[in-house]
Design goal:
Blueprint lengths: L12 E5 L5 H8 L2 H4 L9 H9 L8 E7 L5 E11 L4 E8 L8 H16 L4 E7 L3 H9 L3 E12 L2 E11 L1
Parallel strand pairs: 4-5
Antiparallel strand pairs: 1-2, 2-3, 3-4, 5-7, 6-7
Bound molecules: coenzyme A (COA).
Length: 173
C-alpha cells in the first residue's frame, strides 16, 4: 500500500497488518454463532480464513488490519475495507471483535482510526457500510461514528440460504 498504515492511539491495542499466523485466532471467534449470526459470513474454516488473510493489502484493496493487544500482539479483532472502488473514491467498512473484547469501545476507536486514514491518506470521499438490519451492535458502532443510515437494501444478500435486508450507512469525507 502506498499510503502509511492507520494508527490507533490506544493504550492497550494497536493496528497492524494481518499475518498468516493470525488465522487461528481470527477463526477461533469467527467460528462462533454469536459472532457471525448477524453477518453474512459463511463457510468459515481455518483454511478459508488463511486464504482471506493472503488476499489483503494489495494497492487496490481489499485492506484489513489486525486489532492486536499491545501486551502480546495477539489478535482480538480485525477491521478494514472491502469493495474498494478507487475510481469512485469509495470503500466499504467491515470489522469484528472477539466477544472478550466487546463492550469497551474498541471497534469504535479502531473504526475512527481507519476512517481518518481512508479520508486523509487515501483520499476516499465516501465510506459505506452494509449491515444486516438485525445487527444492533454493529449499527450502534456505525451510529457512534456519525455514519448516516441511507435506507434499506431489500433482499440485498442471500445469507445462509435466505435473502436478507441490509441497511446502507455512509459517511462522506
Ligand atoms: C460489531 C462489534 C464489533 C461491536 O462491538 P462492541 O463492543 O459492541 O462495539 P465497541 O467496541 O464500539 O464498544 C461499544 C460498547 O462499549 C462501550 N464503551 C465503553 N467505552 C467506550 C468508549 N470510549 N467509546 C465508545 N463506547 C464505549 C459502549 O457503551 C458500548 O457498550 P454496550 O456493549 O453496553 O453497548 C461486535 O459486536 C462484533 O464483533 N460482532 C460480530 C461481527 C459483526 O457483526 N461485525 C459487523 C458486521 S457489519
Amino acid at each position: 500500500m502506498s499510503a502509511g498504515q492507520p494508527r490507533l492511539d490506544d493504550a492497550r491495542h494497536a493496528l497492524r497488518g494481518l499475518m498468516p499466523t493470525d488465522a487461528l485466532a481470527w477463526y477461533e471467534y469467527l467460528r462462533r454463532d454469536d459472532v457471525t449470526r448477524d453477518t453474512s459470513w459463511t463457510r468459515v474454516t481455518p483454511q478459508r480464513v488463511a486464504e482471506l488473510i493472503a488476499g489483503y493489502g494489495g494497492p487496490q484493496g481489499p485492506w484489513r488490519w489486525a486489532i492486536a493487544r499491545r501486551a502480546d500482539d495477539a489478535l482480538e479483532g480485525t477491521i478494514g475495507f472491502n469493495e474498494v472502488a478507487l475510481e469512485h473514491g469509495r470503500a466499504e467498512l467491515a470489522f469484528d471483535l472477539s466477544p472478550a473484547a466487546w463492550g469497551q469501545g474498541l471497534a469504535t476507536r479502531a473504526a475512527q482510526a481507519v476512517l481518518r486514514w481512508a479520508f486523509q491518506e487515501r483520499g476516499l470521499q465516501r465510506v459505506q457500510a452494509t449491515v444486516l438490519d438485525t445487527n444492533l451492535r454493529s449499527r450502534a458502532v456505525l451510529e457512534r461514528l456519525g455514519m448516516r443510515c441511507e435506507g434499506t437494501l431489500s433482499g440485498y444478500r442471500i445469507v445462509r440460504g435466505a435473502p436478507r435486508d441490509f441497511l446502507m450507512y455512509a459517511l462522506r469525507a
